[in-house]
Amino acid sequence: MRILVTGATGQIGSELVLVLREKFGAENVVACGHKRPPSPKLASGPFLSLDVTDKTALERVVGEHKIEVIYHLAAILSAAGEKNPGLAWKVNMEGLYNVLEVSRVLGVKKVFWPSSIAVFGPKTPKENTPQETILSPTTMYGITKVAGELLCEYYYRRYGLDVRGLRFPGIISSETPPGGGTTDYAVEIFYHAVRGEPYTCFVRPDTVLPMMYMPDCLKATLNLMEADPAKLRYRIYNVTGISFSAEELAREIQKRVPGFKVEYKPDFRQAIADSWPRTIDDRAAREDWGWKPDYDLPRMVEDMLCALKKKREKGEF
After folding, report:
1. Most buried of 57, 165, 198, 261, CB within 10 angstroms?
2. The CATH homologous superfamily of the domain defined by 172-210+241-313
3. 141 part of the active site
4. Helix boundaries (H) for the chain
């Protein structure tokens, strides 16, 4: 199995590459990034600099390395996308089109592409958002994800390309810093707590959003890619882990870090958060390929604090 991971230096990619290398062998997983240098862990196997908007370069990499499966993770996220919507459209749409087209031409067997809860919007039900519902995003990031879902469906129907994806909620990870998303507060808050610093949260305390801890994110990705294609009713699935408010998260951390202080000063990201669901209905994923998260809020908080304290002791931040 020869695998290519784009966006390999990002939040999901930097950890997914390591899991894939352990499973399939380091030499068989080619990691690609564009602007960030690779970490020592990523550099332990094949690593290339690649701009996914450069179709010729992508085609060369896929051909030379005889790639059979692509995990296409390169993207501009929601908050960063609002600061530069043109770049978000270019990277998110041209990048996906190039991956799908090169996969079609060169015979790539399977493609994974992450969608997002950003596809939903003010017209979407806020509670238990269903698999099939109104998609009415208010951000350029969300618009590219809706268009991306349709493009993936098209390549599956028209060309039989096995494209699979997940509508990820906010992802919480101890390994990489936030990357410009609206749910970044749920990661930033841990760094401040471990450093013994107060945190200013950019959403209201009562803001509830669906989240997922990175181990569950990786588990969901691999489970979907290994699922029997005959059992998949959808190309892109709702998936979720935990829903909680910003204040609930802060209180859970304060149980373990006495004296940790949080204040709330909502900024432009509050409007984005308000347009997204509070809870997600992911029954289709549970029924079709057995999805089930492992982490609840207390277990996630405990694990995050433990991991970051170890990194702090090593002087990594």
Report:
1. 165
2. UDP-galactose 4-epimerase, domain 1 (3.90.25.10)
3. yes
4. 13-24, 55-64, 78-83, 85-89, 95-106, 140-159, 185-195, 214-226, 246-256, 269-274, 283-289, 297-313
Correct CATH for 3-169+213-238 of 1.10.275.10, 3.40.50.720, 3.20.20.70, 3.90.320.10: 3.40.50.720
CB-based contacts of 114: which residues, under 8 Å, 6+ apart? 12, 73, 75, 165, 166, 168
Alpha-carbon span 143 to 262, nearest angstrom? 33
CB 216 within 8 A of CB 295: yes
Angle between helix 140-159 and helix 95-106 axes, rounded to 10 deg = 10
Model confidence pLDDT, tens digit, residues 173-203? 998 877 778 899 999 999 999 999 999 999 9
User: Which among 71, 97, 141, 156 is annotated as catalytic?
Assistant: 141
Cα–Cα–Cα angle for 35, 108, 49, rounded to 5 degrees? 15
> Would you give the DSSP letter of residue 308?
H
- Which residue reads 């107060």 in tokens? 198
26-77 confidence digits (pLDDT tens): 999 999 998 788 888 888 899 999 999 999 999 999 999 999 999 999 999 9
Q: Over 90: is that where the pLDDT of 297 sits?
A: yes
- Helices first, then strands: H and E counts in the chain: 12, 13
